[in-house]
Design brief:
mainly alpha; DUF4381 domain-containing protein; transmembrane helix; 154 residues
C-alpha cells in the first residue's frame, strides 16, 4: 500500500445523502393545498348557485316543448318573465309593449313574423294553420339567453 495522500489507492467512494422525502411537506405546500381546496369549494358553490338560479329556465324549456298554440307559447314566455321581473311590471304589458319588452331583454333579434304572431296571438282564427317553428325557436332562444333584471337597490 502506498502512503502517499495523493495516490489513487487512497480514494473512497462518494457517499450520497439519502433522497429528500416528500413527507413531511414544507408548510408552503399546505398553504397551497388549502388555497386550492378553497378555490374548488368556491367553484362548486358558484356552479350550484347558478344551476339553482336557472331552474326556471329549465322548467320553461320543458313546458315550451308541449306548447301547440301561439297563446300557450306566449303564456310560457310570460311565466318566464314573471320569474325575473315583478308582477306589477309584467302584468300590464300587452300588444306592442309586450313584444318590445321581450325584445329588449333578449340577446337575439325578434323576427317580424314572431312579432306579428305575438301581437295577433289569441285573435287569429282557430282553423287557420300557423307555423309555430319560428315562434318556438325564438321563445327557446329568449328563455335560454334573456338577461335578468338588475337587483333593486335599497
Amino acid at each position: 500500500m502506498n502512503d502517499d495522500p495523493t495516490s489513487l489507492d487512497q480514494l473512497h467512494e462518494i457517499v450520497l445523502p439519502p433522497p429528500v422525502p416528500w413527507f413531511p411537506l414544507a408548510p408552503g405546500w399546505y398553504v397551497l393545498f388549502a388555497l386550492l381546496l378553497a378555490l374548488v369549494v368556491w367553484g362548486v358553490c358558484a356552479a350550484w348557485k347558478s344551476w339553482r338560479a336557472n331552474a326556471y329556465r329549465r322548467a320553461a324549456l320543458e313546458q315550451l316543448k308541449g306548447c301547440q298554440t301561439i297563446t300557450a307559447i306566449s303564456e310560457t314566455l310570460r311565466r318566464t318573465a314573471l320569474a325575473i321581473a315583478p308582477r306589477a311590471t309584467i302584468a300590464p304589458l300587452v300588444g306592442e309593449a309586450w313584444a318590445d319588452w321581450l325584445a329588449s331583454r333578449a340577446d337575439c333579434a325578434m323576427p317580424p313574423e314572431v312579432r306579428r304572431q305575438l301581437l295577433a296571438g289569441g285573435y287569429a282564427p282557430a282553423e287557420q294553420a300557423v307555423d309555430l317553428g319560428p315562434l318556438k325557436s325564438y321563445a327557446a332562444a329568449w328563455i335560454t339567453s334573456h338577461s335578468p333584471l338588475p337587483k333593486q337597490q335599497g
